[in-house]
Amino acid sequence: MRETGLSGKRVVVVGGQASGSAAARLLVRHGASVTLTDIAGRVPDQEALAAQGVRLELGANRPETTAAADLVVVSPGVPLDQPALVAAVHACVPVIGEIELAWRLLDGRVIAITGTKGKSTTTTLVGRMLQAAGLPVRVSGNIGNPLSAEVEGSSPETIHVAEVSSFQLESTTSFRPWIAVVLNISPDHLDRHPDLAAYMDAKARIVANQQAEGWTVVNAEDALAVEIASRGAAQKRLFALDGRPEAAVTVEGGAIVRRESGESHPLVPLSAIRLHGRHLLADVVAAAAVADLARVRPAEMVEAVSSFTGLEHAMELVAEVSGVRFVNDSKATNIEAARYAVESSGAGVVPILGGVFKGGDLGILRDALAGSARLAVLIGASRDRFRAALEGAVPIRDAASMREAVRVAFEAARPGGTVLLAPACASFDMFENYAERGRAFKLEVERLRTGEGVP
After folding, report:
1. Which helix (H) or strand (E) holds 203?
2. Among 35, 260, 381, 455, which residue's CB has the most CB atoms within a 10 Å radius?
């Protein structure tokens, strides 16, 4: 293990959701005296945590508690400018994130994947490709199990494939993945990061500690991603869809290929890919570039790709009703992701947009909708913002619920068209998370399909 000496240390974990809970359990197993604090009056599994020896301090994050600790571990959902964390810093108490804690204790190597969009699909595909090759792989991070929950099963041979967000990366200090992947960068989470530069600085933590023996896999078509990759010392492996000469992995002659010494070596035929949309093809190319570095054979990549039809809530085809396709892209929580979803849906699209706005230029979405969308249905707290940005480019209707949104969109769509849930926003005004939002959309589509409640 990479770090010892936790035994007897007073460690405060701030944030009691999945990541914080996993970190608290890990710390207890390593002999720390752990306090978990959360502003909520109750956290999941609190009885089990207490039974394992975790002291719970709920209802507030108290500065006096963090300032008296030997170490503070912060969950990704907790902003670093929260007073309890500021108090710890002022008291010279180290503050690290859950990803950093896990990294210090893992035995295996880490492939870390970040970007504004496409992280979950790429992470899943890399995991499936490595698994097809018979490698000991564990997929974790922002996509599912916290990385801290994987420490006990880690061995020197294990490859941990982790989806990592800007929130997780900004609280790392020594985190050093074997392979760091930067898919793309566009303005996002500007409700938490003060500006694009701060968002990029957080993302750049993924390469900050890499050394020459490591690799950074980066999208050659994305200038901001390339700029982030340039901040690290690792070897670079560029990928692209457009065949540009600097890309070592690209699309050529109906296949994803690796270029080497003037020759192109096929990795995955495009005919094996079952995902829809240029942005999802880019995720497959990125995954192939990573798997190739891990010495996965082309046949094993094809096996993984050909059986993968996509993730729930990511360009998920839900149903076709009276010739209208319904697509659930609830994971499109930022403007760029929504734009790609709209462009992938073709003419006649009716998008459902809105929620908690996270920042960015809605003009990008306006341009994508103009001339291709029949109607935009607006939901949630940001309806007025979206209306002001989109008016004149596309007809607009408001909806007070997901049921109303789906029915209004269906009425506007025509056979051959698509009703698309791609909100370009977070979900917390109406739903617990993007998954609950996507499930609500699918439920209303099913009600339409079966005629339930239709007058």
Report:
1. helix 196-203
2. 35
